[in-house]
Amino acid sequence: MREFALVAGVVVAVFAWIYVAGGRNLKRMKLALARRRPSPTREEFISMLAESCEADIAELLWDELFVFYKPDMTPHPDDDVIQDMPIDGEEPNDWLSEFCKRNSLRLKDITDWPKDQSATVRNLASWFSENRKRLVQS
Question: Domain residue spans in the chain?
Answer without folding.
Answer: 1-36, 39-137
